Amino acid sequence: MRSFGRCYRKRLSFLGLVLFSFFAVMTVPVAAQYLPISPNSPSIHQIAQGKSSVQADAATLAQRLNTQGSLQLANGQPQVALQTWQEAEKAYAQAKDEMGVLGSKINQAQALQSLGMFRRSLDILEQVQQAIAIQPNSEVKATGLRSLGLAWQAVGD
Known about the structure:
Layout: H1 2-33, H2 42-49, H3 53-74, H4 78-94, H5 98-114, H6 118-132, H7 139-155
């Protein structure tokens, strides 16, 4: 009989703990609604400074398109890759990602070079060169300058 009493008490205390946890979880969000939040609250400031969901979605889409374009170029589809990178450029612009836009333009120039359109590629890369000149050293900057050099070499400049 004693073991039944101990077991019953353990179950009862476990049930009490579960019920307490349930009520604690359910009432905290309701109570939080009534807390005064000042305009200078760090949480409000962080939310205002964060990316909107539209920008985050655009950035994710741009990265996917960028990867897709790379695969298309690697599979011998430079025209399709060019179109994909043009879409990626628009998505990066919507996400307000300047380095992403520049990277997409560099990729477009590489696709144009694969298509034999060296003059058009050179025009894009010269625009990119002006934009990346003020950027800190990065992989995008190095790739852009390398592509520009290859385009100059191909054109004979």
